[in-house]
Design brief:
This protein is an alpha/beta fold. The protein has eleven helices and 16 strands. Helix 7 packs parallel to helix 10.
């Protein structure tokens, strides 16, 4: 009898432990059976594969890449927390800009989110990446709502040298010095890229921006200078941008200047955490971040 009563008293603890184990088991099998863990991938030849983004969007990738392509081919994902935060800002019918589109993780996701009434403009100076993205837009049926522009974005129209590595094309960056096209001694490839300022590119005064993603290896400050008029006439503009103080300074617009520029036209800032959760960050604190690379959100109101 005493043993029975003792077991009965311990029953709530055992039930609690059982509930915890069941939760762990459910999470384990949900993860193992999630479609992203069985991403289809087909090699098409010529260093090209067709795979699935988030288990639903067809995307062409360069199989030589060691930055984004392996993640897309094996898991179908890239920057899940940041992408989640980005998509919470996008609404049906929005106009979205993807500056530094690469093979189009954000472009394709935005095109699906804005729907037939929306519009997406992707800017990518690397011809290989831009070509793959154009094919991805076509195969997903997005060519009526999304367009690829083979050009970089800065603070003035002109040309610059694009330096990149085939295996790490997402790290390509612009150099103002003109260079001969081809392979350099440091292993990087060089080619001439067209550069545009968006205030001159989108000349229609009625054109408004809703959401933009900027990932252009330190050119974010220059791009923002060149689109200030667009930002000023777009009161609901919401931005996600790579924040890399070292690279910003290397392109001539220090992080403090970028933070002050955006704060001066009413923008506030957030950092992105797990699950895409946002934490407010004062402009002065943003300007003091010493270095490193992270994505941040900037908006005048609640970005979500």
């Amino acid at each position: 009898m005493a043993g029975f009563l003792s077991n009965l008293r311990r029953l709530p603890d055992r039930l609690a432990r059982l509930e915890h184990r069941l939760e762990e088991a459910i999470a384990y099998f949900a993860g193992r059976s999630h479609p992203l863990h069985f991403t289809s991938c087909a090699y098409l030849g010529d260093h090209t594969a067709l795979t699935l983004l988030e288990g639903r969007l067809l995307v062409f990738v360069d199989t030589r890449g060691t930055d984004i392509a392996p993640h897309l081919m094996m898991h179908g994902t890239w920057e899940q927390d940041d992408l989640r935060a980005f998509l919470r800002m996008v609404r049906p019918g929005d106009t979205v800009l993807d500056l530094g589109a690469h093979v189009g993780v954000y472009t394709l996701s935005a095109a699906a989110a804005v729907g037939p009434a929306g519009r997406v403009h992707a800017f990518e100076p690397n011809p290989r990446n831009a070509g793959l993205l154009a094919r991805s837009l076509a195969v997903n049926g997005f060519i009526e709502r999304a367009q690829v522009h083979l050009m970089a974005v800065g603070d003035a129209d002109g040309a610059a040298t694009l330096l990149f590595e085939t295996e790490w094309s997402g790290g390509g960056f612009l150099d103002a010095a003109r260079a001969e096209a081809g392979m350099r001694a440091d292993g990087r490839r060089a080619m001439t890229a067209r550069v545009v300022a968006l205030d001159g590119f989108f000349t229609d005064p009625a054109f408004r921006l809703d959401v933009a993603k900027l990932d252009i290896e330190g050119m974010e400050g220059r791009a923002l200078r060149g689109m200030r008029g667009l930002l000023e006439r777009s009161p609901d503009a919401r931005l996600m941008m790579e924040w890399a103080p070292g690279m910003l300074a290397g392109q001539g617009v220090p992080a403090a200047e970028v933070a002050a520029m955006l704060a001066g036209i009413g923008f506030r800032f957030w950092t992105i955490g797990a699950g895409g959760a946002l934490t407010p960050l004062h402009a002065e604190a943003l300007a003091r971040i010493p270095d490193g690379i992270r994505n941040i959100i900037a908006a005048r109101g609640n970005p979500h």
